[in-house]
């Protein structure tokens, strides 16, 4: 049964090995160096929408703190051959790896199919992978090329917030990295004012205080 990207969410992201725009072998190993990854698949290097999308990621790296080198790895993938990828990277002055997936192996690994109701060979799909190598979310929208860098920006803010909040979870029992309520309370130190927020929940609001 073919992989679908929905089935990958919440699981370790696949490792892929492809030639980059210089023809050199490039292996993307999610979770390596504990750095988040934004992996975006796009239909065609040099086309209007794909150029806009690629340049928005380039500009984000130059302008936004959360996109700075060392904080996230941006990787672009399309079915174009190496020679075309090299020209695309040089012309647009892209500052991140752009990989050639002529065989479709990477698309198959990530469950990326055709776009625009089958009119395009490849859909425009972006994956966010956290520093542990877990695929957290995906955006599939071929027409909205401008939404992909914004999608990644929101997720980078969220992942950075999770790192900042991590010390607040010290002493909370975990199962597979998540807070668990199925642990003997006697074995856990009691913390009177501890509030734990899961990934998909907002912390509860503080109770209102009556005045007067």
Automatic annotation (TrEMBL):
The keyword Disulfide bond applies. It is an enzyme of class 1 (oxidoreductase). The keyword Oxidoreductase applies. It holds the Pfam family AhpC-TSA. Coiled coil: none annotated. InterPro entries: AhpC/TSA (IPR000866), Peroxiredoxin_BCP/PrxQ (IPR050924), Thioredoxin-like_sf (IPR036249), Thioredoxin_domain (IPR013766). Its EC number is 1.11.1.24. Residues 7-161 form the Thioredoxin domain. Keywords: Antioxidant, Disulfide bond, Oxidoreductase, Peroxidase, Redox-active center. It catalyses: a hydroperoxide + [thioredoxin]-dithiol = an alcohol + [thioredoxin]-disulfide + H2O. Belongs to the peroxiredoxin family. BCP/PrxQ subfamily. This is thioredoxin-dependent peroxiredoxin.
């Amino acid at each position: 049964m073919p992989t679908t990207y929905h089935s990958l969410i919440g699981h370790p992201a696949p490792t892929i090995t492809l030639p980059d725009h210089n023809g050199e072998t490039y292996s993307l190993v999610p979770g390596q160096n504990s750095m988040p990854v934004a992996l975006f698949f796009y239909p065609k290097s040099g086309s209007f929408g794909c150029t806009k999308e690629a340049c928005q990621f380039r500009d984000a790296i130059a302008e936004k703190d959360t996109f700075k080198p060392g904080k996230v790895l941006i990787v672009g993938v399309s079915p174009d051959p190496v020679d075309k990828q090299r020209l695309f990277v040089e012309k647009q002055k892209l500052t991140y790896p752009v990989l050639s997936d002529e065989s479709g192996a990477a698309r198959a690994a990530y469950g990326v199919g055709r776009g625009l109701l089958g009119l395009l060979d490849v859909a425009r799909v972006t994956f966010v992978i956290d520093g542990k190598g877990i695929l957290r979310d995906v955006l599939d929208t071929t027409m909205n090329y401008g939404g992909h860098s914004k999608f990644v920006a929101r997720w980078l803010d969220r992942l950075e917030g999770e790192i900042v909040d991590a010390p607040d979870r010290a002493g909370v029992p975990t199962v597979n990295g998540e807070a668990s309520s199925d642990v003997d309370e006697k074995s856990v130190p009691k913390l009177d004012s501890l509030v734990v927020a899961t990934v998909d929940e907002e912390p509860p609001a503080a109770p209102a205080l009556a005045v007067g």
